[in-house]
Amino acid sequence: MIDSTPSLLKKINVKNIELDLKHKKDLDDLGYCVFDNIPEIHSNLKKLNEEANKLIKQEGSLGGWEGKMQHYKPGKKFEDGADRLGALVDKSDVFRKLILIPELLLSAYYVVKEDIKLCGFNLRNPHKGRGEQNIHIDGFARKNLNDPFAGIVAFLYLDDSNLDNGAMRIIPGTHNKIGYPDDHIDITKKNVNEKRLIVKAGTLVVANLNLWHAGAKNLNGKSRKVIMINIKKRSYDQLLNYKKFLSKNVKDKLTEEQKYILAVRDVDKDQLVDSGGSANDQRRQYLESIKSI
Fold first, then answer.
1. Mean pLDDT, residues 45-70 taken together
2. pTM confidence score
3. 3-state DSSP assignment of residue 192
């Protein structure tokens, strides 16, 4: 039985369970690293796009609500101004193939330095004139510099990303900041240190969950589909409770390695909530509470 992340890496025939020095340095110094030539992604890019486009059309306003259906109302989109899809590992084998990509797992394990699990696997595609976000982090804020990092979020680009269709804004090195971005800056404004992430379709960008970043406005309306893969320390709640929400048919198809990274085995701890571990929700609730004081 797979009993640790190193044993998982060996099981999937990763010869060196250490990330290479270049990507380690980028994760340490910049808070993110870029992989632009992963064969498993490029060989499936056409199928990934076809399946994503099909699901966007099929699901409509229901897209992305898995685990949060108590908040859904007919016609209400998960995010105004964007196509969203959730629970992608339950919807096609072409998505499930991505969860064991060595570069993804090695990066997450390097950042967390403990056993990991997949916590979220969703898609976002902003519409024309929409998609701009406030600067934020996807992880819980650290209180001290020696606090461990919780995990990573990987952005897998299904389309080219450029200034015209809203390339993401990132602020390198900010993963080492203490607290939330709004403890330091006006998160509603452009930051002087921000960089735009211009990449080709098929690129995988792995970012520390504590890196300051934000979506930008899609000016020309061209598709900018991005799959967001959230991986955290194994003790954290998942953004979607896969043990509960994966269909029996899919669970029966999973390999031992996929079951481990999704934490859906009988030996894996049951999660009490349908959707947990959202740093943005926690921060929003905190700010609303102090407004009422």
1. 97
2. 0.95
3. coil
